[in-house]
Design a protein that fits this description.
TIM Barrel; eight-stranded parallel sheet; two-stranded antiparallel sheet; FMN_HAD; 10 strands; 15 helices; Lactate 2-monooxygenase; binds ligand FNR; alpha/beta; oxidoreductase; 370 residues; Alpha-hydoxy_acid_DH_FMN; LMO_FMN
Length: 370
């Protein structure tokens, strides 16, 4: 029977379990895995769960409006899909399917540098859907320049520079399964079609794939970068630049001083510094430091509509959704991602209304206990 029966659960926290049953431990291990013993991933949940909404009554919530302006764009809701690399591990339709689902809902899609599909193809799949490009800031300036040029030409409007990944962390689940997607060479189509990347190879990819993968690993990020290096990106990107992976208010201030447009308060879903602060713990101080100057986005732990509510109440302008949409993609392709976006936003809308608020902009710390 089809039709009225939903194919995926309305409770998005059940997606991981379902994905494990249907897709097996390999793909799910890639998405679910985190750094170390998972303490930061747990801290992300604990930090959100520690806050409690205090609903207000009799405030006429008959009409709500989730619309949100970010970087000069009018968006239907304070939500974008986070960059998640190598989505072909989850579903053969990969990034184009997720991006189409986002575009269908008017939700921006942040495309990972480590996309398994070249960025031009993702752009084509999205039509005029809002798209942002996430940069892994390569050691090789020519490759970075080439990525920025390609992204601009493909209609990506904002640049998200991920700073928390100058090296890949100790990720036991990947290591135990020998499932490092990059080393398997499947994560690199975006690089393997890049003229500047290809120019750095002694032999064509098909003649020496292992050398190509090693070249990729050696240059995909650069632990030597410092704040003044941002000037290079500012010179080569004329749209908004957002720094992803900010947890300290002083780093947020440095971002503002460097002429950046926004930050993402994020610990990469607990995949980088195990033992670090839960992302929601970091949010109020960052928002207090730069909220009047920069757009403050949040990710790491968003699973439900009330999580979205809490992040906004703690000072975020909008949130990025990560793992849940990757599971939705794995379970049901484009339709699965659409289900995840719609469910999350419907639950957020209801939480807003039932708590006595009509717009995301109305939320602040007074909506929470303590
Ligand atoms: C990520 N994330 C990520 N971030 C980024 O800037 N570039 C990337 O390529 C990836 N790739 C990636 C793969 C997978 C499988 C995951 C789970 C995450 C981090 C992502 O953008 C976001 O910060 C986290 O997913 C947020 O944590 P939760 O809410 O998904 O737990």
């Amino acid at each position: 029977m089809t039709g009225a029966v939903p194919r995926l659960p309305a409770d998005l926290t059940r997606l991981e379990q379902l994905a494990e049953q249907r897709l097996g431990p390999g793909p799910v291990g890639y998405v679910a895995g985190s750094a170390g013993n998972g303490s930061t991933e747990r801290a992300n949940r604990a930090a959100l769960d520690a806050h409690r909404i205090v609903p207000r009554m009799l405030r006429d919530v008959s009409s709500r409006d989730l619309r949100t302006e970010l970087f000069g764009r009018n968006l239907p809701a304070p939500l974008a899909l986070a960059p998640v690399g190598v989505l072909s591990i989850m579903h053969p339709d990969a990034e184009p399917a997720a991006a189409r689902a986002a575009a269908g809902e008017g939700v921006p899609f942040v495309l990972s540098s480590a996309s398994s599909t070249p960025m031009e193809q993702v752009a084509e799949a999205m039509g005029d859907g809002e798209r942002w490009f996430q940069l892994y800031w390569a050691k090789d300036r020519e490759v970075t320049r080439s990525f920025l040029t390609r992204a601009k030409a493909s209609g990506f409007t904002a640049l998200f520079v991920t700073l928390d990944t100058p090296l890949l962390a100790w990720r036991p689940r990947d290591l135990d399964q020998a499932y490092l997607p990059f080393l398997h060479g499947v994560g690199t189509a975006n690089y393997f079609t890049d003229p500047a990347f290809l120019a750095g190879l002694a032999k064509p990819v098909h003649e020496d794939p292992n050398a190509a993968v090693l070249h990729f690993v050696g240059m995909f990020a650069d632990p030597g970068k410092t704040w003044p290096d941002l000037a290079f990106l500012r010179e080569n990107w004329d749209g908004p630049i957002v720094l992803k992976g900010i947890l300290h208010p002083d780093d947020a201030r440095l971002a503002a001083e460097a002429g950046m447009d926004g930050v993402v308060v994020s610990n990469h879903g607990g995949r980088q510094v195990n033992g670090s602060i839960g992302a929601a713990e970091a949010l109020p101080a960052v928002a207090a430091a730069v909220g009047d100057r920069l757009t403050v986005l949040f990710d790491s732990g968003i699973r439900t509509g009330d999580d979205v509510f809490k992040a906004l109440a703690l000072g975020a302008d909008a949130v990025l959704l990560g793992r849940p949409y990757a599971y939705g993609l794995g379970l049901d392709g484009q339709a699965g991602v659409t289900h995840v976006i719609r469910s999350l936003l419907a639950e957020f809308d209801l939480t807003l209304a039932l708590s006595g608020h009509r717009t995301p902009g109305a939320l602040d710390a007074s909506a929470l206990a303590g």
